[in-house]
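About this split. The held-out portion is used to measure sequence recovery: a designer receives only the structure tokens and must propose an amino acid at every position. Recovery is the fraction of positions where the proposal matches the reference. Here is one held-out target exactly as it appears in the evaluation file.
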């Protein structure tokens, strides 16, 4: 964690902002748009500002692959996509830019292998999330999605995996519960380290500040998790998209903590910090 020197009351999490998988995906897109027409049928990451930036750099956003010309490049986003979509891209003669995060790809490989071995795949995660929908597309057989204890059934042979951005503490309990309800089980805790470290650091800071701010997009699962877990530690926790939302929040106390989701750009974080400092300077001069 990094102490802001000029304004000691603002503590910015070191892990705030782009994670390794998002950086990798953005780099791939930025490199590709320079040399070839490049398309995507879905947001590259769950952050509108970041996607708009890629659009400005030349990435084409379309609704379906029918709109992508044969021979053009198409991006597979960091959250990954189902296997049949990859096949569809290949059949259409598209050049695939695979930006699936390696942590997500690892889950695809696990669920494909274990479903072929006859295991029922139990995904601890959110059934509406793009990553989970992508994972389902690699399963060859039965599966179940568990986001609370109410979802847990009885399993014969369960292969348990977690969405990469799960609430790590919650997932631990759910994994135990699923194991207790399975005659046989194998567990792959596939929460990614970036998520784990980010949550840990955010919790530590949230416990020590008067106001805590999470910067992210409401569609970003990892940003929402950060908000949920820090709100439990610091009552005055706020979820904002960018510096414009600061006017809607009530900053109390002497010390402000900040973190940001894995798809929040550094420029957005910097703009929030700058705006906060500006606010403080304005207060001082009153
Ligand atoms: S949060 Fe983790 S799994 Fe998701 S893109 Fe980042 S590094 Fe990959």
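Reference sequence for scoring:
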């Amino acid at each position: 964690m990094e102490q802001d020197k000029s304004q000691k009351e603002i503590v910015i999490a070191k892990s705030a902002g782009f994670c390794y998988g998002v950086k990798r995906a953005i780099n791939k897109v930025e490199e590709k748009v320079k040399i070839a027409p490049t398309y995507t049928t879905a947001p590259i990451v769950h952050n509108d500002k970041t996607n708009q930036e890629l659009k400005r750099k030349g990435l084409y956003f379309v609704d379906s692959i029918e709109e992508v010309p044969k021979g053009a490049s198409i991006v597979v986003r960091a959250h990954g996509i189902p296997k049949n979509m990859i096949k569809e891209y290949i059949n259409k003669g598209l050049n695939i830019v695979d930006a699936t995060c390696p942590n997500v790809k690892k889950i695809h490989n696990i669920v494909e292998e274990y479903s072929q071995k006859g295991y029922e795949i139990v995904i601890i995660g959110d059934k509406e999330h793009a990553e989970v929908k992508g994972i389902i597309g690699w399963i060859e057989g039965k599966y179940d999605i568990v986001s609370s204890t109410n979802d847990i059934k009885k399993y014969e042979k369960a292969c348990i995996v977690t969405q990469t951005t799960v609430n790590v503490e919650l997932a631990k309990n759910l994994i135990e519960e699923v194991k207790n309800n399975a005659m046989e089980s194998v567990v792959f805790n596939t929460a990614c380290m970036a998520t784990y470290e980010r949550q840990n650091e955010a919790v530590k800071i949230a416990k020590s500040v008067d106001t805590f701010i999470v910067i992210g997009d409401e569609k970003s699962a990892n940003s929402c998790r950060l908000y949920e877990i820090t709100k439990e530690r610091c009552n005055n926790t706020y979820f904002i998209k960018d510096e414009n939302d600061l006017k809607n929040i009530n900053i109390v106390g002497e010390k402000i903590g900040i973190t940001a989701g894995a798809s929040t750009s550094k420029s957005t974080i910097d703009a929030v910090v700058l705006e906060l400092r500006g606010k403080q300077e304005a207060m001082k001069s009153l």
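Annotator remark: Residues 266-284 form the longest helix (19 residues).
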